[in-house]
Amino acid sequence: MLDIAAELKALRLHGMADSFAELQNQGTPALGASEWLIRHLLQAESTDRAIRSIRYQINAAKFPIHRDLAGFDFSHSKADPSLIMQLASMAFTDAAQNLVLVGGTGTGKTHLATALGIAGIQEHGKRVRFYSVIDLVNSLEKEKAAGNHGRLANSLMQKDLVILDELGYLPFSQAGGALLFHLLSKLYERTSVIITTNLTFSEWSSVFMDAVTFRRKGARVFRRNDATWKC
User: Fold this and answer.
1) 29 Cβ partners below 8 Å, 6+ apart?
2) Which residues contact 204 (CB under 8 A, 6 or more apart)?
3) Phi and psi torsions of 194, nearest 5°
4) Chain Cα centroid distance, residue 33
5) Each residue's pLDDT tens digit, 42-59
6) Which stretch of 12-16, 62-66, 123-127 has the lowest confidence by average pLDDT?
């Protein structure tokens, strides 16, 4: 049975919670007969807040299109269904681990990344932000030009999961690659990142920086316990 006082506090209705406790202590006769109605109203309010929160977080995530795991055709993908469902538990975000989905065009990488992000919001209350890589790099370059370098990184560090879609599909400047790498360095061990790409890890140096520098710095940002799956 719903604990009325606890639910009032959970909904941050502290004045009502104190008043309810006072009425209980006074033994107000009408209170007992009204408790079923109070519980019903509290449950309705709690449900409505949860629905509105999910709607807000999905809008804030900026997904380009709604996708879910139920709509993904695993029969045409190399992705392991059991492993994807395990990832949908969002346990990897609790440890701030990262996930890389590798595959060619049309293999379902964006669908899976989006579906995992939506599952994180709907089922686990996670805060998510979706970006195409090229849009993110453009935003980072504009931010730096405006003298606001670091503001976007600070914002994304407040998220549980950042999804970066299509690394390697469209070119950007070496300066843009350095800004992106710096952002990933800031998110390291704070915010989980899902990256979809058509590049193997050995090819990432062509995106971020020269090969020698990437080999030296990349291992500090992309750890051995981060997962890579082929789609």
Assistant:
1) none
2) 167, 168, 197, 214, 218
3) -105, 125
4) 44
5) 999 999 999 999 999 999
6) 12-16
In the block, tokens 């440890």 appear at 95
How far apart CA 50 and CA 193 sit, in angstroms, is 25
Please provide the distance, in angstroms rounded to a whole number, between the alpha carbons at the two ends of the chain. 46
CA distance 171 to 61: 24
Q: What is the largest CA-CA distance in the chain?
A: 78
One-letter amino acid of 50? A
**pLDDT given for residue 84 in this prediction:** 94
User: Is the pLDDT assigned to residue 181 strictly greater than 80?
Assistant: yes
Identify the pLDDT of residue 158: 97
Delineate the domains of the chain, giving CATH numbers in brackets: 4-61 (no CATH), 69-230 (3.40.50.300)
Q: What is the dihedral of CA 101, 169, 176, 150, to 10 degrees?
A: -40
User: What does DSSP say about strands 227-230 and 192-197: parallel, antiparallel, or unpaired?
Assistant: unpaired
